[in-house]
Write a structure and sequence with these properties.
This protein is of the alpha/beta class. Helix content is about 40%, strand content about 10%. The protein is built from eight helices and ten strands. The two termini are about 25 Å apart. About 35% of the residues are buried.
Length: about 350
């Protein structure tokens, strides 16, 4: 995420800002300019109260570019769902902003009809048949129970996951969407992707049954970014794509705030770089440059977390096979971005 400042007094304000705490200027997010701007001459999104949205619109009562992509929200009487709705919408705004930074299409040629859409519903609120988090033809469904920290932590422990967040869920599900967009059926990209991730034509139901009956193979860390990624090539792609979004967004944030690592204060023999120098605001040239900036940050951030008695902020190890998968995703994302620039 980029850093933002108040257009009036230039004090730092967060991405979610609605008012500058220093000078009192009313603020909002201009999706066209992709900046935090003064409210003057604009209106707040119709979801300002319901979803704590800070998006701006031209017409009173309209939905912003993010909220308009939510197809279904909790019913007015769904107390549990409405409590979690602002949390999910906040994560969705961050997701959509990052997709824009990467120049990935959310609608238009090559995407599902209607583009990317969201159903944000709560199984706790009595949605008929329950709510299953997932993706289908551009429609992402999220069970708003995931916005409850106690529920989410319980599920994380039950499934032996190192990491589980609402934003992480959305990044995973949007990965399924972009596999169809970036790797069209019958394309050369599909054959290359199969060579990296495996053949997605393998029976998904059988793969899922096997995974939940037997678990991940013991050597999964040598080939996959997560245990869940071992279930099927589709899930391997989605988990890797989500991880790619984690890294790109965190690196952009580090660059925006001038975060750098100068190395530990003791001599080491580590082969990996332990200093970043200034993290560039420009996108990394390739995966190697990305990881040269990313890995030293993770060492330092994990050490800081442990100093606070918390678990690792980044509880992952990237094996060479995983780096190859990240490189493949990076190549496809860059190609899509270049194509959009060429047609702009």
């Amino acid at each position: 995420m980029r850093a933002f400042s108040c257009p009036t007094c230039r004090r730092l304000v967060p991405f979610e800002a609605t008012r500058c705490l220093h000078c009192g200027t009313e603020l909002g997010l201009d999706w066209d300019r992709r900046e935090i701007v003064a409210l003057t001459g604009r209106h707040r999104c119709a979801n300002r109260e319901l979803a704590a949205c800070n998006g701006l619109v031209d017409e009173r009562g309209a939905l912003c570019a993010s909220c308009s992509r939510t197809r279904t929200r909790p019913a007015d009487g769904d107390t549990a769902g409405l409590a979690g709705f602002p949390v999910a919408e906040a994560a969705k705004r961050r997701l959509l902003f990052e997709l824009g930074e990467l120049r990935l299409p959310v609608t238009g040629a090559g995407t599902a009809v209607g583009g990317l859409r969201f159903d944000l519903l709560s199984s706790a609120g009595g949605a008929g048949g329950g709510v299953v988090t997932g993706h289908a033809d551009g429609l992402i469904t999220l069970d708003l129970a995931e916005t409850d920290p106690a529920h989410r932590e319980s599920m994380r422990q039950q499934l032996h996951e190192p990491y589980r967040t609402v934003l992480g869920h959305l990044r995973h599900e949007v990965g399924h969407y972009y596999e169809a967009v970036l790797v069209p059926d019958g394309s050369p990209e599909q054959e290359r992707t199969r060579a990296v991730f495996g053949d997605e034509r393998a029976d998904y139901q059988q793969a899922m049954d096997r995974h939940y009956a037997q678990g991940a193979p013991p050597d999964w860390p040598e080939r996959f970014v997560s245990a869940y990624a071992t279930m099927h090539p589709w899930e391997d792609w989605a988990e890797t794509f989500a991880h790619y979004l984690h890294i790109r967004d965190a690196l952009q944030t580090a660059a925006a705030y001038g975060v750098r690592v100068d190395g530990p204060a003791v001599p080491t023999t580590d082969s990996a770089p332990l200093r970043t120098g200034p993290v560039s605001a420009a996108p990394p040239a390739d995966v190697n440059e990305m990881l040269d900036a990313w890995l030293p940050l993770t060492y330092a951030l994990n050490a800081l977390n442990r100093s606070m008695g918390a678990g690792d902020l980044y509880p992952f190890v990237l094996a060479p096979a995983v780096v190859d998968k990240l490189a493949h995703v990076d190549e496809l994302v860059r190609a899509a971005a270049s194509e959009r620039l060429g047609t702009a």
